[in-house]
Amino acid sequence: MKTHLVTGGAGFIGSNFIRHVISQGDVGLVNLDKLTYAGNLDSLADISGHPNYTFCQGDIGDRALVTSLLRKYQVEVVVNFAAESHVDRSIDGPADFIQTNIVGTFELLEAVRAYWSENKEELEGRFRFLHVSTDEVYGSLRSEGYFREESAYAPNSPYSASKAASDHLVRAYYHTYGVPTLTTNCSNNYGPYQFPEKLIPLMILNALDHKPLPVYGDGQNIRDWLYVLDHCRAIQTVVERGVPGETYNVGGNNEKSNLAVVNTLCDLLDELAPRADGASYRGQIAFVKDRPGHDRRYAIDSAKLQTALAWKPRETFSTGLKKTVQWYLANREWCQRVADGSYRRERLGLLELAR
């Protein structure tokens, strides 16, 4: 049985990936997660007792711990989701992003490099280290064009800068040490189990609680939206068929302005959970001051992944968003439990500490 070590597996994308891989058959999953505010074992409650699943609370920066897990479970695939990932939080406090996304990735790579060197003969052709990254490392696009794998890096926030640094480390460990690494850079994910600081779940929950729906600036910042299970299928595809040393961009082919996303969410909620007073949720939209360094447009060209590895997204934005809204409506208790910590859906990224 092939065993995957998944770091950050209690987070949004990681938990969906673990659930997806477990459903595919005879694969062992070891989940290493520090359980910070956005990591929650509630997201994996349905598979916590699965015989192929093991959870370990810990930090990717703990080289000794990672090494022990690699050896104990004879890991053949490492998928690194572990990261601080919220732009606004990186503005308020960049130190955690540097520590986890850069130093943590370095320590993880060092553990993997030693393990690979010790077991190279046995693992040759089978071992893979896949690093999950973001399109934000490329910076901001004008009104036309797409990010491609060869696009220059131009990060504009502490978050994207820290992810760019980790991407470069992963690349270096392939070219310098021969570790069979792969990198994926994805567009904005959405779907079940997403922590409610991100745009879509924040708007859903604020709408249902009759709170304002804060839209930054003029609402015309554009993102390419990717349904999380399409992303999980892409990661699995890259693990199984990707070429070591390569980068693959993963996009949903769904460019939408933030305001268009919020309007669509309001319309879906008007249909699926109408307000008692009959008014539209659009009336709760409130434009607020833009955040510093807010990139205007992201758009991913995933042609390489689609052509070379025969992957394509299954969900349109319409079908994926409706499934997402339905999930949040059916899982209000989960939303309440994960938000019981320090995050209360307050505004972040206002540079209060810098004033």
Structure description:
Helix 4 (95-118) packs parallel to helix 6 (158-177) and helix 9 (258-272) crosses helix 11. Helix 6 (158-177) links the parallel strand 5 (128-134) and strand 6. With 355 residues, this protein is of the alpha/beta class. The mean pLDDT is 92. The strands form 3 sheets. The chain has a 7-stranded parallel sheet with strand order 3-2-1-4-5-6-10, with helices on both faces. A 3-stranded mixed sheet has the order 7-9-11. The relative contact order is 0.14. It has 12 helices and 12 strands. The chain has helices spanning 12-22, 63-72, 87-92, 95-118, 120-123, 158-177, 199-208, 228-241, 258-272, 303-309, 317-330, 332-338, and strands spanning 2-7, 27-33, 53-57, 77-80, 128-134, 181-186, 188-190, 213-216, 222-227, 247-250, 255-257, 285-288. The chain has a domain at 2-190 and 228-253 and 294-314: NAD(P)-binding Rossmann-like Domain (Rossmann fold), CATH 3.40.50.720. The longest helix is centred in the first third of the chain and has 24 residues, at 95-118.
CATH architecture name of the domain at 2-190 and 228-253 and 294-314: 3-Layer(aba) Sandwich
End-to-end Cα distance: 54 Å
CATH class of the domain at 2-190 and 228-253 and 294-314: Alpha Beta
Instruction: Report the biggest beta sheet as strand number plus sense, adding barrel if it closes.
Output: 7 strands, parallel
Oligomer: single chain
Number of strands: 12
What percentage of amino acids are in beta strands? 15-25%
